[in-house]
Amino acid sequence: MFFPEPDSPLSNAMMKKTLSRIFFALGLLWSSSLFAQVSTEPSVPNASAPVKIIYDASEGTTGLEDCNCDVYIHIGAVTEGPESTTWSIVPFEWGQDIPEAKMTKVEGEDNIYTFELTPDDFFENPNGQTIYRLGMVFRNVDGTREGKTSSNSDFFVDLSQGFGVQITDPSGPSLSLEVGEGYSVKAETSEEAEISFELDGEQVATVASSTSLTYDFVATEPGSFRLEAIATAGGETDTQSLDIVVFGASQIEELPAGARLGINYISDTEVILALQAPGKKLAHVIGDFNDWEVLPEYQMNRTPDGEIFWLRIENLVPQQEYIFQYLVDASIRIGDPYADKTSDPFNDQEIITQGRYPGLKPFPAGKTNFQATYLQTAQEPFEWQNTNYEKPAPENLVVYELLVRDFDEERTYQAVIDRLDYLEELGVNAIELMPVGEFEGNLSWGYNPSFFFAPDKYYGTKNDLKRLIDAAHGKGMVVILDMVLNHAFGQNPMVRLYNDGDYGAPTEDNPWFNRVAKHPFNVGYDFNHESEYTREFVDSVNNYWLTEYKVDGFRFDLSKGFTQVNSGDNVNFWSQYDPSRIAIWKHIYDQIKANHPDAYVILEHLAANDEEKELADYGLMFWGNMNGDFRELAKGENRSFNWAYHGERDWNEPNLIAYQESHDEERVMWESLNFGNTSLLNIRELENAINRNQLLTAFFFAVPGPKMLWQFGEFGYDEELNNDRLGIKPTRWEYLDDPQRNRLFQLYKEMIHLRTAHQVFSNPEEVVLTLSGNVKSIILEHADMDVVIHGNFGLSNAGNVPLAFPSTGTWYNYFTGEEFNVTGSTVNFNLRPSEFYLFTNERLPTPERGILQEDFVTSIPREPVNSSEFAVYPNPSSGQLFVQLPKGMNEANYRIIDMTGKEVKEGQTTTDNQILEFDLGNIKAGLYIFEAFDTRRVLHQRFIKN
């Protein structure tokens, strides 16, 4: 190829055109890697000829290393195309002792196994499909141990169709070099052949008869080159080409003072872009401002330590949005990891079509591919309105977890703003938003993050999110973000800088990510939190959201994964005390608190108690998952839930955020309605299910410490989680119009009000939990007020039960206003199933629901009763009172209460006689209520005692 003088106008023009064309072509190509742990003889196997597969069990995931076992191959034929990963024909069952799948152990080698086959003969292929590749995984006899690639994926071996040649080193279709570098390119054939290399049409190496040829390419000048391997044997000729791009060396220059990674806005017309990419050779900026051409003037400078590429771009139009990317080493196209807005080739058109983001530019299709990002100078600053709100103490938090996607059918930040009055009425003082950072796709829970500084556009603009946060602050609610920093998904720029192919696993040289996750339950790609690169990135992400968006703290997803201790698939080992993980979290906590001392730091840890205790006593807060216990209780089973109280865990600080439900668990009401007990008491009937859930909720909120509820739990949401687990769920706002479900909502309101208004629920001086039996009790003592709650978790009436009180004197039933005098350490009560009482020793305003507790809590279904079957007479009564009960109610509890709610008589019917007789001579004159109840119904009638 002819090259003009490097500095001539002709040279510059040719370079601009040539490099831009070849860079765009290379960016669209897909390449696969050959894995050292699997090799073949011959090196270029043929579908119609014998091939020996050689497996090294000490490489890759090493699941079979030194297993001292028989090793089997699980193999499949790929017929959909030369780049497909779909196994079309699979001859063996997984986990079976199949002699034909057993590999041969190489004598004298501990971990080397072989398997021989002729692909076209081996697979049953009646339609004669072309077999392009072999896919394989290795296992022991029952499949409990397996060997896969180092990225935990299948192995693939490409097959030639007849005689063929392949460039086996490098493995991809392109190679980029700087001037002065060299590379030994190797080609191999499926059989002995005459092999040659031609560089831009000129032969540069040849061999008359061999199965391989190597050519040492030396990059002496910048430009683009095509190296072609040509092989001929038996009258057949095959070729394969390699595109080589040579660049001049990057200009070595320090990053300007004050510039940081990402987009630095210097003025209304100027930015400095800085990309961290240690070990990479060169980088260009491509975008709207240079029509996506790869131009010499947009080649980025490199810092002397080789860590950072940077470029100053001038003459930008103020406030104009520019979409741009970095092109790294001639082949990797990525957006800026620190950008606050992305351009997505797959998902933005839906957002534009639905009008979800005003003025969103379409992705520059045809000019580039993969995710890009925006920059915009001279942006108008957001005007915050509510900056003087009061943040609740951590122990006083009542957190409402919500998913923007499913909280309202509009699925926008604005729709949440429109519902804030509802949350204010409910009384919560904190909103926890499930992840809103840019994630892959449009409709997601958000735990598949791709860009960590950009709000997801499907929900609205970044200023829409700021308006939501500002509006919540204006209503006295703090905002906590669900932050996902355990992992990132394949679109993330830092993954794609060092990974296999376009969206494959990170390579070993990735500064931020582990190639294989160190712990179970990982999704995406696992951050290495002991890497200084990751540490600095995490600190910058946290500080950004606290500063730029004025969020009040974070709930960190999968925080137990922040470790480099390799637990593999061993869940128990992963959960054990881990000093290195503790050190990581203390560092993150300290960095957050250094700049934002009142920020909440909450972990979804679920690890060993000694580890959580150490971190909780250090100041971090923890999710306390009580879903299992409460779901069992919701069905009618008996469980203690004392682990919901931090004191039972021996923690010094009340940093446990207990919850009945979160987004990860099945709903408690769903459990009641679908699997509730049906004998004695039919919990599957809605009214009984509401009663049961009211009982659970009253006790849940009475346990001291901060609390969390998952959206719509307050009115008994009952859609099954695992029926399309991650899919869109209906909102069910209409449930609030149902009197029964509204009864549950009203109880949530009252209990939240009590918690947030009275310190006894967050900082009691004495706590007594009696939670093992069917009748459960919580006693809280505080200098301001004492609280007692008793409830019947059994399925039948609990008669004449002595219930404890911490002191004698006057006590008050919170829900009815009843006042009564406690003269001893206990008072006997009769409790229907799901009935509970909440008492205080200070008079509090009574909820405006009427004096009958049954109008609000612990209802019993009202079956229609003929007035002739139920009668209380004479009315008025001077001394004797008769009560006629309906047929079938001969085994019922009854009581007479006065208009304050105080019980003056109680008992149980024990005869078939439906007429009860009472002597009222010893009670004072006044208005009373007779009440009779069994497991099916409750009856009331008022009468007067003269």
TrEMBL record:
Domain of life: Bacteria
GO term, biological process aspect, one: carbohydrate metabolic process
Domain Glycosyl hydrolase family 13 catalytic: 401-755
Cleaved signal peptide residues: 1-36
Pfam families: Alpha-amylase, Por_Secre_tail
SUPFAM superfamilies: (Trans)glycosidases, E set domains
Keywords: Signal
Keyword Signal attached: yes
PANTHER family: GLYCOGEN DEBRANCHING ENZYME
UniProt family annotation: Belongs to the glycosyl hydrolase 13 family.
Protein name from the UniProt record: Por secretion system C-terminal sorting domain-containing protein
Protein source organism: Algoriphagus hitonicola
